Amino acid sequence: MKSGRRAFLETFTKVAGSSVLIGSQLLTAIPVLGEVRGSMTVGEVIDLILKTIPGAPFSKTVDTLKSGSAGQPVTGIVSTMFATVEVIEKAVKLGANFIIAHEPTFYNHADETAWLENDAVFQYKKALLDKHKIAVWRFHDYWHTHQPDGVQMGVLTSLGWEKYYDEKNPAVVTLPGVSLKNLTTHVKEKLGIATMRVVGDLAQPCKRILLMPGASGGRNQIGAIIREKPDVLICGEVSEWETAEYVRDARRKGDKLSLIVMGHSPSEEPGMKWLESWLQPRVPGIKVSHVESGSPFLFV
């Protein structure tokens, strides 16, 4: 059984259409930028970013404009995980008309909207973006391709683990021995996560950490466990019938393996916070702000 995201990645060429042009042909037509002076357009900011990404622009990517136009002048930039209605409202208050979001704006990986045209929620959000002339650009594939991975570095920095990770393999962190309970508490406190799900013995010593923010999928997570042999996998999101069950069976077999599930948004938001400090020096004439979209869940 495949998740919608993974199934999409296998069939993207069938649905990419003209939106890819925004991420390739249009952007490559923008002149090479030298030193940034004065105001910039949305397209120029995107082009500036893409020049730091190996292999960019990609011929197939979900990192396209979801609203606005490449030619509009930028009054301010907001980085965030999700361009929610609340984030859009906060961007307006900040005087920013360019939102760089890590995840989809319109509730599916490809941001296809034909199926939502008559939906009141979609219409409300689109009208809000149009009213305030806000451009939204997804920055997912490119940010993960950046060297180092922008999301991974944001999480490592937030956790204070910069000196513990392997530069050749940034997903592996080697810590001084710490119990699973104390490790869980550290992650919660540093990333501001109210509650997390854990599979394992809270007294288990943990030293070799496999850090995989976001939703990389069960096969990738399990494959990394097999390859890296960690004491614990710390990830953003799991399909409950995949990785969690693998860890449970591994523990029953006798393996000292645990799992910490942070939640998708909390696990990658630090990467978009890191974008704020990474991007600001590159666009000195434009204010870059991070607005946290946060988790949509209450825990009762």
From TrEMBL:
It comes from the Bacteria. A divalent metal cation binds at residues 102, 264, 268. GO terms for cellular component: cytoplasm. Keywords: Metal-binding. Pfam families: DUF34_NIF3. GO terms for molecular function: metal ion binding. Belongs to the GTP cyclohydrolase I type 2/NIF3 family. This is NGG1p interacting factor NIF3. It comes from Dyadobacter helix. The lineage of its organism: Bacteria, Pseudomonadati, Bacteroidota, Cytophagia, Cytophagales.
